[in-house]
Amino acid sequence: MSFKLNMITLAMTFAATPAMAANFAVGNANTDAVNFGKYECKRCTQAQGYTGEVSVHAGYNNVDDIHAGNALGTAEDGAIGAVSGDVRYQNDEGYQAKLQAHQLGMDNGFARFSAGKSGVYSVNLDYDSIKTYQAGNVESPFWHNNGMLTPSDTMRVFDLAKQREKIGLGVELKQDLFDAYIGYSQEDKTGHQSSSLVAPNPINFGLPIDARTKQLDAGINVSGDNWLTELAYQGSYYENKMNHISLPHLYDVQAATPDNQAHQVSLSGQYQLNRTVMSGRVATGRMIQDEDLVNVSGSPLQSWDGQVDTLDGRFAISSMLTNRLRLGASFAYSDRDNQSSTAEFTQYNYNSVTGTFRQNKPQDITRHTYKLNASYRIASGYRLQAGYDRKEVERTFSDREQTHDDSLWMKLNVRAFDKFNVSIKGEHANRSGSEYEASKDTSSENNALLRKYYLADRKRNAVELTINHTPNNWISVDLTTRYANDDYHNTQIGLTEAQDYGYDLNVNLQFSKNLSGYGFGGQQWINSNQAGSQSYGSADWQADVEDQFINLGAGLNYAGLMQDKLSLGIDYLFSNSISDTYPTTTDGQSLYYGDYYSYNHSATAYANYAISDEMALKLSYRYERYFDTDPANVEINGIPGMITLGDINHNYNAHQVMLSFTYKLR
């Protein structure tokens, strides 16, 4: 739950006030002699009492695979039910309340309640239930009991799913010059996730989840005629209720996720001087982890004593120099100072203990970001924008201690054509930095020719084209295309090149007064090439990876049947993703690598019938066809010497029928 006022929203609201407008704005008109009583809107009164609607849902699910619950809202097989609604209350003294609910009673739903007096105070209460499903009826020959992982002759059956339940309470006080808020939320996460360990052979098992996260937010906003500021605090507390994983013959073979907490205090503000707007923010924080470590022979540390201090700042300025030209600039600073404990550890090779010692190195990261931009209105309907961005990053104890990314971009917006809006944007970016593998702490661990993609030299060229077209009053078309090429020109081992291109198309149709429709489609292709070495030397193999994604959808709605009481509709969605990997060796030999493939068909048909002005019925049918295949998922003993969670790929059909009754409050 967040009660903070968004600074961008505040800025837009602030800029819309009369004080922010030009001298000829309506807000600056002399209205002393105007009798507003003669122009009072006699029909613009707000409804008093209760308004809104309440819906009750009852239906039936035919679900063979719990993964369908991600689309249907619940994985329950059989009868299902839920409650939804949007109810508001207001009286003539300014007191108001609002209750919103969506699918309460199903695995995924929420409720929002707020009450208070307009412009004085408000109280908010939230509830969220979110459940995500990975696989159901997963079998494992290992039992987990209070941290002890024990082999068994019988299979344990469980679901790979995560359940999150979150409640929140907040209070906001409003006065003429300031607003103050405080909010508290608590999220409990339960379920199972996949995990693995080596003891001495690889074992995959279902790790229980039982954790709680508490969040505290508080702040105060103060504003004047042309300025505003906010002082805020954010605190997060994570508590893991699970123990370390142990085996019957060996304790603490896998550490549980440690408890931790994070705190941040920030001060932000905005000021306007004539046609210039300045904004800034500074924040300081601390992340703490102070938990006992698992008992490892030879380790000098009994607890981690982890601490990272953070300092962030940002300043931005934007000025309208003329009616045609606007200039802007910003600077951002981010520092992560790792104050965690250090100690001397014995170093291990693959074959033996070296006998030497080395100290763990807590990494610090500092970022500087500079941005300059300009916007110029060439003529009516023509606007040209351009900018320069630079990001400098310094990392201690890294393969590359310094990198800097430079980017030049330009965008042209054309709105001068009748029924056509066109914009095109181009970008050229380059990354460089200090000498690679300058750190002795990492140079001996990796191939000397290896370049990590986020640290390597890179050249990027990108272009994007957007077209909005409205040929007539019953059809509108939006098209966006994009292309980007990344060239890692100095990389011999690692990612050497990547291309990302695609399009998105949306069409809205109004065939007649009663018949409307829509359609959309989008595709994306990501092709990359990487080189590797099995001999810890120069490249002796390479792999081409081709990823494809597609989304298609369409829908129709027909209203006006049975004296405008009945409307019918249908929606359809298709999505597909393919990932093909083609490895080859330097001598031209092709290697086999399994491909990933998935697709989904989803359709909904519905009928809405108005019984009266207050009551309505809706009958809907939902269908999902889902299939995926991941070569990494194999049978439990499909790989000798390794125990897996089995073949958890999906191949199912799911159906849902729902009848909803809605009552409108007037």
Give a structural overview.
The chain has 666 residues and is mainly beta. The protein has one domain: Maltoporin, Chain A. 3% of the residues lie in helices and 65% in strands. It has four helices and 30 strands. The protein has helices spanning 7-15, 69-72, 440-443, 561-564; strands spanning 49-62, 78-90, 95-104, 109-117, 121-145, 148-174, 178-198, 202-223, 227-240, 245-247, 250-254, 260-273, 276-289, 306-320, 325-338, 344-348, 353-359, 365-379, 382-395, 402-414, 420-433, 458-472, 475-487, 494-510, 515-532, 541-560, 566-585, 596-610, 615-629, 651-665. The strands form three sheets. The chain has a 26-stranded antiparallel beta barrel. A two-stranded antiparallel ribbon has the order 10-11. The two termini are 30 Å apart. Its main location: membrane. One of its GO terms (cellular component) is cell outer membrane. It is found in: Cell outer membrane. Keywords: Cell outer membrane, Membrane, Signal. It comes from Shewanella maritima.
SSE map:
Layout: H1 7-15, E1 49-62, H2 69-72, E2 78-90, E3 95-104, E4 109-117, E5 121-145, E6 148-174, E7 178-198, E8 202-223, E9 227-240, E10 245-247, E11 250-254, E12 260-273, E13 276-289, E14 306-320, E15 325-338, E16 344-348, E17 353-359, E18 365-379, E19 382-395, E20 402-414, E21 420-433, H3 440-443, E22 458-472, E23 475-487, E24 494-510, E25 515-532, E26 541-560, H4 561-564, E27 566-585, E28 596-610, E29 615-629, E30 651-665
